[in-house]
Design a protein that fits this description.
By secondary structure, the protein is of the alpha/beta class. It is 35% helix and 13% strand.
């Protein structure tokens, strides 16, 4: 969150790629889209928007699709 503030970026416009349970929990709590890529510990049930076993073969478009699928949407008042 601090990095987003320093860069002038809304956390809702970000994807956090994390390999730890605490990192994922932090990203979700801050309001970003959280991608878990486990390395040494399981991330199942931690709250990631998605879990990918690896980043190998993934592209920037994959990250953009992930964000589009899970980003908070502005509230529509009727």
């Amino acid at each position: 969150m601090e990095a987003c503030t320093e860069l002038g970026v809304d956390i809702a416009d970000t994807v956090a790629i994390e390999d730890s349970p605490n990192g994922l929990r932090s990203a979700v709590a801050a309001g970003g889209v959280a991608l878990g890529v486990p390395l040494m510990v399981s991330l199942t049930g931690v709250g990631a928007h998605e879990l990918w076993p690896t980043l190998d073969g993934r592209t920037a478009q994959d990250i953009a699709r992930l964000h589009a699928a899970h980003a908070r949407r502005p509230r529509q008042d009727t």
